[in-house]
Structure formats: structure tokens, C-alpha cells
Amino acid sequence: xxxxxxxxxxxxxxxxxxxxxxxxxxxxxxxxxxxxxxxxxxxxxxxxxxxxxxxxxxxxxxxxxxxxxxxxxxxxxxxxxxxxxxxxxxxxxxxxxxxxxxxxxxxxxxxxxxxxxxxxxxxxxxxxxxxxxxxxxxxxxxxxxxxxxxxxxxxxxxxxxxxxxxxxxxxxxxxxxxxxxxxxxxxxxxxxxxxxxxxxxxxx
Length: 204
Prior knowledge:
The chain has 204 residues and is an alpha+beta fold. 27% of the residues lie in helices and 19% in strands. The protein contains 4 helices and 6 strands; from the N terminus they run αααβββαβββ. β5 (184-192) and β6 form a beta hairpin. Mean pLDDT is 74; it is low at 45-62.
């Protein structure tokens, strides 16, 4: 049988405005009209105690769908990717850096040297220094750098210049931040389980 025309069920059923609030699905017109007719017959969907509008299954009260679905929608829309790309390295006083030093067994070497910042990765909190005179570095430092470079090549890593010396965020004077490439600095060196690194880095 063909679907009866809108409003043909009688009983003064009002024209259907939209179907979106109806449980978030589109009901066939004849089903929707039947629901409206049942509501009218029961007194407009009001409770026997004269309270608010009834909210039975499949019947959302005016504005209810907005109060439920809109917060969920807004959270999903604005919450997507929250904080992405904004988080940098750990703070200077974070125990994270202390733990790293303890795990790698640093041995500080004597001497103060000069160089420039070759590269610094803000999000990860580490970078490299290019010494002005690589030959002036302590023998242990040069040996550790050479060994680390050879191991990186053997493992197929994208290695940097063998003379570049690794450093971490807390090993730099906070006054130098934000840190830029080619900034002239003074520094000291150490050796640990992973090779050679720079510390006590300050402006030259």
C-alpha cells in the first residue's frame, strides 16, 4: 500500500517540521504521525502529576537533543588533536634530566672550549655544538666521538659531522634561550656510556 499523505491520519496531527530530534533517526511519516496522535490522545505527553513533558523512548523533549549531543559534538570538534605539537622538552629542573645523567655515568673532563651551536631541536631538548678547534679537545673526548660516529655509520644511521658534540637542554645557561643556530658559546666536555657530550654551555 502507498504511504498515506502527511496529516491524513486525522486527529489534528500537526504537520511534521523535521525529524532530527526524533532519537536522531528519520522515522517514516506514518510512524511519526501515529506517535503524534498517541501523544495527543494521552494529553500531550504530560505526566499525570502535571510535571514536565514526557521523554519516552524515541520521544525527545524540546531542546533535549541539543543538551545531550551538542556538548559531545563540541568536545569532539575542539578536542581533536588537543595539545598536539605544543609540548616541548622537559623543564630545566625536571628529574628526567637528573635520571638521564645517573643512567649514563658521566665523567667530566678538564678544559673550557669555544664553538657554535650547530643544531638544536626544541621539542626534544637536545642539539650539537661545532667546536672551533676539534684538535684541542681532550684525547678521551675525541676517542669517544670517533667511536660513536663509527657505530652510528655501522648501524646505518643518518650521522652528522664527526666533530659535532652532543648536548642537552639543562647543560645550557638558561640565559641563552631561545637557542639559535650559529650562536657562539663556551663549553666543557664529558664522556659517558654513549660517547662524548658538552655541558656548562654559556655565551661566548
